Known about the structure:
Helix content is 40%, strand content 18%. By secondary structure, the protein is an alpha/beta fold. Helix 1 packs antiparallel against helix 5 (116-147) and helix 2 runs antiparallel to helix 5 (116-147). It is elongated and about 80 Å long.
Amino acid sequence: MHSVGEALLTDLYQLTMAQAYFELGMKESAVFELFVRRLPETRRFLLAAGLEPALEYIESLRFTADDIAFLATLGKFRAGFLDYLRSVRFSGSLYALPEGSPFFANEPIVRVSAPILEAQLLESRLINIVHFQTMIASKAARCVIAARGRQLIDFGMRRAHEADAAVFAARAAYLTGFDATATVEAGRRFGIPLSGTLAHSFIEAYDREEQALRSFVLSSPEPTTLLIDTYDSARALQRVIALARELTQSGSEHRIRAIRIDSGDLAAQARMARSALDAHDCRDIRIVLSGSLDEQVIERLVTSNVPVDAFGVGTALGVSADAPALDMAYKLQEYAGKPRRKRSPGKATWPGVKQVFRERAASGEYLCDRVARADERPGGEPLLIEVMRNGRRSVPSPALPALREHCSNEMRALPAQLRELSPAVAPYPVSISDTLQAMAAGIDLQTGAE
């Protein structure tokens, strides 16, 4: 999935620091943690995603001969360091939050332990992979909540930020609870069910809409979905009803599965369509709505009891339109066995090797989280699990359907207030252990005296 040569998908300063580590003989173990500093205003929780592609990247990380040759042209790197890069392989360990798990601000979701040069080299691409899929999964989760069990289809490819974004957005959405994608490559690569219909151009290519609808149904080897809003939805609907009855009466093997409405007053048209379909004994024909949908529109349609069976969500999902970036960071927390802490205003970190512990009610519902040292036992379930040791996976990676089931279970465990779409009045309780706070104070005292 990831091609050899991705080593240069990084920021230049990762390589200049790596050269300095190499030449200064800095080989001690370092611990870095990946986390989000603060949640966007429109998010009450985030969903971890992208771990599997990240592990693939880490396992395959190599500097190829072409990579080395290019770096040599920059005039920034000495021959000894470039020669060393040829043999670089990640040899450390990773602990991570399972994909599909909700998390909150300042909770580590990936913990990397490795010689500092190796751990540093992961930063840019690791954030790049995990950030994007986490961002999309967190947006998709809101659509899943809003749809209340209705089918969701990813239509986001055409406005996604290039090919990889479209494919991995489909993966993140499916993991979160979407039922299908229109992106064929995502279906091939990840086994996601595919869903597609026809565009308005097919209708427009015919002189008569009725002939276009009939031709498409008869050319389809399985029950299909027809667009009805190219010209006039009410008139097209009557043509769909007539065609459906004709197919039934003739004993044809061809069937109409659904109609799709992509523009205009979706609520009014859906009500009109359901009433007409039911009145003409076409109750098995479903209604799909699409066109500039997001979780807010979906929620309004659902809570207004609009008769709809499925939603196609495009741009708003594929670019996470209301929150297109997360304040995600990858920071050094320990080096050579000593805890480290950044103190920059607004960007301070908690030092040391950490774990997140989650308290649950007897029902499984989340109660609170505590960030503590990894060797503490404050109560609750430890969330970060070992996924890589000595540079190789230490446990088999779950298949996408298993991750999808895990995500569904965890979203059901969210407290009711976290499943609302409006900005949070009070955040979910996440506390920092006394031990971590004391450690931070001690480091501040020491560094303040320097």
